[in-house]
Each structure stands twice: as C-alpha cells, then as structure tokens.
Amino acid sequence: MIGLDPKVVDYSHLPVKLDESTLRAGLAADEKRLRDLGYDARWLLVDRGETAEAVVAAAFKEKTFDCVLIGAGIRTIPPLFILFEKLINLVHEGAPHAHICFNTVPEDTAASVQRWV
Fold it and tell me: Lower CB density within 10 Å: C or N end of the chain?
C-alpha cells in the first residue's frame, strides 16, 4: 500500500476534517485489518515527490507484490496528480503482475484489496 506520509499532508485543503495523529491511527488500523485477514500488507509512506519514486522503485526490487494500492491521499489531491501518474508507471514497470487497487476512504482499504486478492 502506497500512501502519503502523514507528516507531509496539507490538512488544510482536505475535504474531510483530519489531522496527522488521526491519519496515522487510520493507516495503522488498515494495515492491522489486512494482516488479521492473512495478508502480508504494509504501508509504504512517501513524500510529495522529492524521493517518492526512488522509495517505491526500491520496494519493488525487494520483493514481489500480488497487489498494490495507491491511497486517496496521493490519488485525489490535484497538486499530486503527476506523482500519482509517476507511481502508476512505476507499478507497471516494477510489479507488472500485481493487481492495482484504490480505496475510496481509509476504512475500505481491506475491501479494496480483497476485490483483487
């Protein structure tokens, strides 16, 4: 699961009221929920583009992934559109056999993964 590190999120422009500690707790809950379901899941938290591509590319060299989720924090924030596009291409190159999925809210991350794996 690829997501924006909560320390670099601009919370003032989000459509929902959220802060760093709430987001961190939500990400941890998502990961736990997936692990409890038997998935080897982990969040790969990235910055707003400075090193995100290198971090994601390195992760794809470490292991094989069955599914890659790119979170809404990257996907739905207009200034991060180019980062989202770059990450999709990295998934295509670095994990060509992985399914790609997207959550709509943090609470449906597990359901998003379960659609494909």
Answer: C
